[in-house]
């Protein structure tokens, strides 16, 4: 009985250690590339890439889903939900209906929206003006997001495994 808990505990600790190593590697790559981008941007008016550059009106692209058992997952925000929301918010009465005088046809006014999600890196410049080191920094930090989710879920599994061991061994509290 105890061997099962030990095996599970050791495998979870090995997974947790591997995930921490990967997270450390991606974070160091991200900060290294960010420092390179800041070095190449030192002659600009604002100087460094930081909070002064941020666009606070930018909508998020990731959504955190916290489940009942304490685990969570990170999902990509889809535009389908925005389209459904926009379609249901449109008024159905005839107040906002446009009439084409020459043809006598009633039509709804068209609502233009940008359906393609924007990449947050474009708040730092246009398509060609964003330095490659800043793009590399963004991709390294984006790789950290699923790792953090896995780390939190692995830690939750470790605590559950320890609780199971405490119950089976009759120990009141080893933490």
UniProtKB/TrEMBL annotation:
GO CC list: Vma12-Vma22 assembly complex
Superkingdom to which the source organism belongs: Eukaryota
A GO term, aspect molecular function: unfolded protein binding
Renumbered residue ranges of the record's region Disordered: 75-95
GO BP term, example: vacuolar proton-transporting V-type ATPase complex assembly
Protein name: Vacuolar ATPase assembly protein VMA22
